[in-house]
Design brief:
CATH topology of the largest domain: Beta Polymerase, domain 2
Oligomer: single chain
Family: Belongs to the tRNA nucleotidyltransferase/poly(A) polymerase family.
Pfam family, one: PolyA_pol_RNAbd
Keywords: Magnesium, Metal-binding, Nucleotide-binding, Nucleotidyltransferase, RNA-binding, Transferase, tRNA processing
GO molecular function, one term: metal ion binding
CATH superfamily of the largest domain: Beta Polymerase, domain 2
CATH architecture of the largest domain: 2-Layer Sandwich
Strand order of the largest sheet: 3-4-5-2-1-8-9
CATH class of the largest domain: Alpha Beta
Number of strands: 11
Shape: elongated
Number of domains: 3
InterPro entries: Bact_CCA-adding_enz_type3_sf, CCA-adding_enz_C, NT_sf, PolA_pol_head_dom, PolyA_RNA-bd
């Protein structure tokens, strides 16, 4: 977050106040400022109606007028400004069916999820905290605003957000809030998998054992991953503790969780698809799972290492080795030394690293590009992986000619029949 965006937010507050309106920074930005963090975004709430905000600022975007939100473009920054409102009728478990603009800040704050997200700050830095969010923040307590069951029925994703905040802040979920999550946990299945995915991906880079503890205590874990319902909580916790030793990167940690649970690539792929993970995410996670050795890498020959690195790729192989060492931490340093040594000697990582191109092969053999070229290139790849010294133009073209001639002879004999 740049100072420019904070300055832009203060400018929006000041202009609204000078025009006679109430205006406050609100929600997560206030929470983060009290924690001494730099907010990613600054949101403003005001009793000015959307059209009044549009009249006051020359550059705006009607982001969500029916819900009272206007984006103000100022100083090269974008600040969301939303009118005080109350909401009713969350029929889809997320969006209210009725929004009414009000002139009461407390009423606006009362619709928010947790007490530390229901604070507002004016341009002079004065805090409005009707639900004692600052005290809960200092006590590291995640507490729902008002009646917790109602908050979670309004938007069931708030239950997963409670887990994320508790993990992020190393906080406790207040008893009444935790029990309400247990009572309403069944509602999580009605939330779009994309929204659940976004929360889960944030949790993946946090302290996983803490997150798993909260997910288990709130009955959310099995509902997030119904396909893994046979995996007992102790097994989940063991997997989380191992994955937590890895870098805070989503894909390697997700792969480590599956590995720790004993989940195969097929089931892992199905789980990730159900969670609506992007294709690239799924591809990378499954590549890592496939790269985790199932035999002792120290016993591998140089030839086996070359084939392994070629098939898996450097990044997936590196991640696979890290996960392999989770249950054998004493092997980490020597294995990574061996891995780096093998990487430095790897002759090719793809067909592009061959000393000849498909065009070279076609020209030398006087054949047109097509499936035959692909088959020859694969033969040359295998040849170089078997013997790296073969990766020279003259050797590969000679090998290509010999292989092509053999293929032609075989096809000719097949055509003649018995």
């Amino acid at each position: 977050m740049t100072i420019a965006r904070l300055d832009a937010a203060w400018e929006v507050l000041t202009r609204l106040e000078q025009a006679g309106f109430q205006a406050y920074l609100v929600g997560g930005c206030v929470r983060d400022m009290l924690l001494g963090l730099s907010p990613e975004d600054y949101d403003v709430t005001t009793n000015a109606l959307p059209e009044q905000v549009q009249d006051l600022f020359p550059h705006t975007v009607p982001t969500g007028i029916p819900h009272g939100t206007v984006s103000v473009l100022i100083g090269g920054e974008r600040i969301e400004v939303t009118t005080f409102r109350k909401e009713e009728g969350y029929l889809d478990g997320r969006r209210p069916t009725r929004v009414e603009f009000v002139d009461d800040l407390r009423m606006d704050l009362s619709r928010r999820d947790f007490t530390f997200n229901a604070m507002a700050m004016d341009s002079r830095g004065k805090l409005q905290d009707p639900f004692h969010g600052r005290a809960d923040l200092q006590s590291r307590l995640v507490r729902a605003v008002g009646k917790a069951d109602e908050r979670f029925r309004e938007d069931a994703l708030r239950m997963l957000r409670a887990v994320r905040f508790a993990t992020m802040l190393n906080a406790t979920i207040e008893e009444g809030t935790r029990l309400a999550i247990r009572r309403q946990s069944h509602l999580i299945v009605h939330i779009s998998r994309e929204r659940i995915r976004d929360e889960w991906n944030k949790i993946l880079v946090m302290d996983l054992p803490i997150a798993l503890k909260h997910l288990t205590e709130t009955d959310l874990l099995q509902k997030l991953f119904p396909r893994l319902h046979d995996c007992a909580s102790p097994k989940w916790m063991q997997a989380a503790e191992m994955a937590n030793r890895l870098p805070p990167q989503q894909q390697i940690r997700q792969a480590a969780l599956f590995w720790g649970l004993g989940i195969n690539v097929t089931t892992a792929t199905e789980c990730l698809r159900e969670l609506r993970q992007p294709t690239a995410f799924i591809r990378n996670v499954t590549a890592i799972l496939k790269a985790i050795p199932n035999t002792d890498p120290f016993a591998w020959s140089s030839k086996l290492w070359r084939h392994y690195l070629y098939l898996c790729g450097k990044d997936a192989a590196h991640s696979g080795m890290l996960i392999y060492c989770l249950s054998r931490p004493e092997l980490l340093k020597p294995l990574m030394c061996l891995f780096n040594e093998q990487v430095s000697k790897q002759p090719i990582w793809s067909a592009r690293d061959l000393a000849v191109t498909g065009r070279d092969i076609a020209s030398s053999l006087k054949i047109t590009p097509g499936p035959k070229i692909g088959k020859i290139r694969q033969y040359l790849i295998d040849l170089v992986l078997e013997n790296p010294s073969c990766n020279s133009r003259s050797v590969l073209l000679a090998a290509a000619a010999s292989f092509y001639e053999t293929q032609q002879t075989d096809h000719s004999q097949e055509g003649n029949g018995p």
